[in-house]
Amino acid sequence: xxxxxxxxxxxxxxxxxxxxxxxxxxxxxxxxxxxxxxxxxxxxxxxxxxxxxxxxxxxxxxxxxxxxxxxxxxxxxxxxxxxxxxxxxxxxxxxxxxxxxxxxxxxxxxxxxxxxxxxxxxxxxxxxxxxxxxxxxxxxxxxxxxxxxxxxxxxxxxxxxxxxxxxxxxxxxxxxxxxxxxxxxxxxxxxxxxxxxxxxxxxxxxxxxxxxxxxxxxxxxxxxxxxxxxxxxxxxxxxxxxxxxxxxxxxxxxxxxxxxxxxxxxxxxxxxxxxxxxxxxxxxxxxxxxxxxxxxxxxxxxxxxxxxxxxxxxxxxxxxxxxxxxxxxxxxxxx
Length: 335
Description:
About 45% of the residues lie in helices and about 15% in strands. By secondary structure, the protein is α/β, with parallel strands linked by helices. It folds into two domains: about 25-105 and about 215-330, D-Maltodextrin-Binding Protein, domain 2 (3-Layer(aba) Sandwich), CATH 3.40.190.10; about 110-205, D-Maltodextrin-Binding Protein, domain 2 (3-Layer(aba) Sandwich), CATH 3.40.190.10. It has a five-stranded mixed beta sheet. The protein has a five-stranded mixed beta sheet with strand order 7-6-8-5-9. It is globular.
């Protein structure tokens, strides 16, 4: 009996030691628990974070800017945010301890979403039409650079300011011909409103001259410098979660629904699949693995940002992204 008790005690000690050894890493998302967030929950449920001795708790966000100050202030060591918003934040807050370390959306989801029945299929079709755009919308912020890249005569485009809740309903009702928005979200919102899928045209800005990158994993640089193995382990687990979600989206969505039971599983699976196809599994990511960037493209992206944003300081690509914490490419290959 003593042996059994001692064995049980020893097992408890071992388990307690393992729990103590795990480093808590709060992770701030940019948005709600929707389809594209599923890979991070997969990394929890399949033990990928645990394999790196990490205990990760994920918090929802309220927009592309939301995670940046959270990470910059040290409230969260890691987050998920639009790199273009990060670039502007660092320009306005020089020396803030935050940078991107892993590109997730190699192509940003910034898009013009229209209806073929209203004559919208390619960028030039916007001339002579009404474009609905919420003033705070991330895609609308990039529209001037998109217009320049496609030689659009913006004087021929009527821009109708719309609210986020009314954006897709106005397009569904034909009150506008197209809207700016995130490709997967606006598309699915239209489907839910009864617009036939074969009538929806998605003009992804990245396919029409926009060199910008999209959302990335960001870190507090002070924390990362003090805990490099934690950040590399975190990114290793993130890559594994995305790889599993790409291979089989359905169980990935099951992990999401466990945290957001009110969500529509079929809808969120479509949202995840759309983000994978358009934003994550690009030719660059398939060749080199997810997470890295092309320095020449980032330089071109900074030039495009300067078309719509007046930098207070000379832009410096080294401030916005580092690959110093990325795991080996073999751990980041998507197939």
